[in-house]
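Blackboard transcription, Thursday session:
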Amino acid sequence: SAVISQKPSRDICQRGTSLTIQCQVDSQVTMMFWYRQQPGQSLTLIATANQGSEATYESGFVIDKFPISRPNLTFSTLTVSNMSPEDSSIYLCSVVRDHVTNEQFFGPGTRLTVL
Amino acid sequence: KNEVEQSPQNLTAQEGEFITINCSYSVGISALHWLQQHPGGGIVSLFMLSSGKKKHGRLIATINIQEKHSSLHITASHPRDSAVYICAARNYGGSQGNLIFGKGTKLSVKP
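(Written on the board underneath:)
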């Protein structure tokens, strides 16, 4: 399996501010993803983090609101910009280690509350 | 109608009971995941299936491709099994991370 850590584990933020969430994996992985889980809802894919290039965003998500970096094969960040209460969610980092097993692993999540 | 349906939505069991959670999907899939989400929000990947059956400890997952149905079984349930169990399907030909998630089954195991 892949061991994934996220920082912070939770935060309470004021509207209009930005928060950067970090995702660290214990080994190199081929693919990294960011998901959002709004209260009472299923997970939704925000984007695929691409190493050394711009992330690939899903419909409804844009780079200005959710800038993502992936400087190497073990680390990625997601920033939630200009936050509003609607951004209150759990944000999860997920990885696929390799294309042989294609197994997908999830991080512990970051619980964000925007006041 | 959601492309991935889970039942039941909520399940309460007594410790020691055998538990089954069902997942039906309407799309062609290349893989199906069973995930466990604890109250803190973190998700643990339990199984990834494309056919047949997998077993890990007290957990068993089965999939019937023809019937588009999967089940997660927990034998000798324990209060620490209390969590939300989520079924997620990867569309055949879909991008790697773009899973279709069920709404989850909230399991509570009473001592």
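Lecturer's comment: The radius of gyration of chain B is 13 Å.
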